[in-house]
Amino acid sequence: MTYAAPLRDLRFVLEELVGMDAVAALPGADHVNAELVAAVLEEAGRFAADVLAPLNAPGDKAGARWDDGAVTTAPGFADAYRRFVEGGWNALSCNPEHGGQGLPKSVAAGVEEMWNAANMSFALCPLLTRGAIEALELTGSDAQKALYLPKLIEGSWTGTMNLTEPQAGSDLAAVRTRATPDGEGRYRIQGQKIYITYGEHDMAENIVHLVLARLPDAPAGVKGISLFVVPKFIPDADGRPGARNDIRCVSIEHKLGIKASPTAVLAYGDAGGALGELVGEANRGLEYMFIMMNNARFQVGLQGLAIAERAFQQARAYARDRVQGTEAGVRGGGRVPIIRHADVRRMLMEMKARIEAMRALGIVTAHALDLAQAGQDAGAQARADLLIPIVKGWFTEQAGDIASLGVQIHGGMGFIEETGAAQHLRDARILPIYEGTTGIQANDLIGRKVARDGGRAAHALAAEMRATAERLPESGELAGLRAGLLSAVSLLNACTDWMVATYGTDIGAASAGAVPYLKLFGTVAGGWQTARAAMAAAARLEGGDNADRDFHQAKIGTAQFYAAHVLAQAGAYAHQVMHGAPATFALTDDQIAA
User: Fold this and answer.
1) Listed residue (230, 258, 65, 66) closest to 161, CA to CA
2) Which of 129, 89, 81, 84 is nearest to 107 (CA)?
3) Do both 128 and 202 map to the same domain?
4) Which of 262, 344, 459, 521 is exposed most, by the fewest CB atoms within 10 A?
5) 386 with 461: CB under 8 angstroms?
6) Cα-atom radius of gyration of the chain, to the nearest Å?
7) Distance between CA 253 and CA 213 in Å, rounded?
8) Domain of 123: which CATH number?
9) Secondary structure, 3-state, 247-267
């Protein structure tokens, strides 16, 4: 089926939950208003639906092709990328100093959801480029910024990040790639990197790799890793792509999903060393790379939202068209579309409620990133840092569940590739894995973001959630939201206190509860946002806004479903957090294998 961008919901979140005044108050955003945002979203939605979405299923079938070191992307991808760049979409949220348009991240997040929902394999290329841009902006030399940023922001050059090696996986302390000074201010890079998204392709005139490697005198472990910029083609004196660097694409991976996105194995320095430049200071590469990682983790969270939305749209359309059986409780009724069956409605509402909660939380997190970058809110960076592992981990875990529900709604036809539902499930499966697994996100959350500051940032956010709950009425159609959110926030606070206390005395027990804690936090934060949405919608209805009456009434109904079916799971997560560790370690390794 075709993809339709959820424009009305995106505008609602920006206007009601973030506030256009708050967006316009950001430095350099005084020109941003509801009319501009609506125009940007509408045009992006049109590009996503008309250009990118039609390439999604064919790209899945054709995949990317490797031949003697060269990679050809799926038919239509190169032309779509050319149109993407010509339309200025790559520069949307980038710094105007280097050719970007400077749109706030809170607005760009909605656009990026569209790219990924329409065609996630395509959208991965600009996603990685944006991470390279941010890393060079913050850590590159003036010369590196002048050379690389205009091309990367324009999109005529693309970027990658090169962390993983065959023996290392997520353990970056085991990185072996070497960087040897060449005596002329540059370095010869030698080693192999794996899982490099768009590490080789035919869509841009140059590819700029940011590579982790070790200097000859580097200390062992993560403290001895430096970051280097290593282009596929070495720019000449005029900044144009020149001689081919000593980088070879050994192969591309054969994957479960995102098959049109080439995932490359890159060999550096087989002919003496790929020429690169040190970025920033020596032995601070991991710190710099985490700039890219942080950006990428937020973007991957948006991918989870996006693929969930695409699966929902397809399942909803199928449920409305597929006629089968009679409606329970209706005597003498004829055969009905399956959307009239109670369990199908439950699954569709589960998809819808979770998606709207994610969308709201994702854009609110993007606004926190905007505020942190602007330096306008002392607590914005702490809030963004707290929420990013939740956005990455909770969104992507939900994406798999929601895509699986989409297959279930299709019944047996969902298991058949021709319907397209299976592709969404296959594509979604990578999301909880790359850019740090859910376990890694959860350990980051409990360690760096909660235990390190004694739970202050987590409790501060929970206090805002409680304040929202207390503004909900004690009677009427929103009363159930109040009771459910107050209870869930209390559980979250109790688990935060438990996590802070336990992390310092029994890190194993804390780690056993880390993923349930992340899911609890995401579930409660989602309930917070759906409650805020319900209050805003109720206010619109009370004010006589009848133009969008069905939309606003649906917001209230969706929040009620979320509270009854999703937020109600908070108690189970809390029990896992505080009481699940003994069962986790109850068996020995041999007993697990028995």
Assistant:
1) 230
2) 89
3) no
4) 459
5) yes
6) 24
7) 23
8) 1.10.540.10
9) EEEEEECCCCCCCCCCEEEEE
Residue 569 lies in a domain: yes
- For residue 523, the enclosing domain spans 454-594
Among residues 284, 301, 330, which one ends one of the domains?
284
* pLDDT band for position 195 (cuts 50, 70, 90): very high
Helix residue ranges, H only, 140-213: 142-154
- Last residue within a domain, chosen from 255, 284, 313: 284
The tally of domains found in the chain comes to: 3
Q: Which two tokens stand for residue 106?
A: 């809170």
Question: Could you tell me if 209 and 137 lie in one domain?
Answer: no
Distance CA 57, CA 461 (A): 41
For residues 96 and 166, membership in a common domain is answered with no
Residue 369 lies in a domain: no
- Residue of higher predicted confidence among 294 and 217: 217
| Residue 172 sits in the same domain as residue 77 | no
Domain for residue 216, yes or no?
yes
Instruction: Give the global pTM.
Output: 0.96
Q: How far is CA 52 from the centre of its chain?
A: 19
The 10s digit of each residue's pLDDT in 68-110 is 999 999 999 999 999 999 999 999 999 999 999 999 999 999 9
CB 351 within 8 A of CB 311: yes
Average pLDDT across the chain, whole number: 95
Q: 184-222 burial, b for 16+ CB within 10 Å, e for fewer?
A: eebbbbbbbbbbbbbbbbebbebbbbbbbbbbeebeeeb
Closest to 151 (Cα-Cα) out of 178, 139, 133, 134: 133
The CA distance from 359 to 532, in Å, is 13
Q: What would the 3-class secondary structure string for 102-115 be?
A: CCCHHHHHHHHHHH
CATH classification of the domain holding 235: 2.40.110.20
Are 266 and 205 part of one and the same domain? yes
Q: What is the pLDDT of residues 438-448, one digit of tens each?
A: 999 999 999 99
How far apart CA 198 and CA 262 sit, in angstroms, is 5
Pairing of strands 323-326, 335-337: antiparallel
- Return the structure tokens found at 275: 């020429």
Q: For residues 316 and 311, what is the distance between their CA atoms, to the nearest angstrom?
A: 9
Length of the chain: 594
Of 353, 439, 315, residue with least CA distance to 389? 439
Q: Are residues 464 and 582 in the same domain?
A: yes
Q: Choose the catalytic residue: 435, 464, 470, 477.
A: 435
Residue type, 296: A
Task: Indicate whether 316 belongs to any domain.
Answer: no
CA 499 to chain centre: 25
Q: Are residues 222 and 177 in the same domain?
A: yes
Provide the 8-state DSSP code for 169: T
CA dist 507 → 437, 474, 491, 573 (Å): 19, 41, 21, 19
pLDDT, tens only, 144-168: 999 999 999 999 999 999 988 887 6
Are the CB atoms for 539 and 531 separated by under 8 Å?
no
Residue at token pair 């760096």: 448
**DSSP designation for 474:** S
Together in a domain, 91 and 224: no
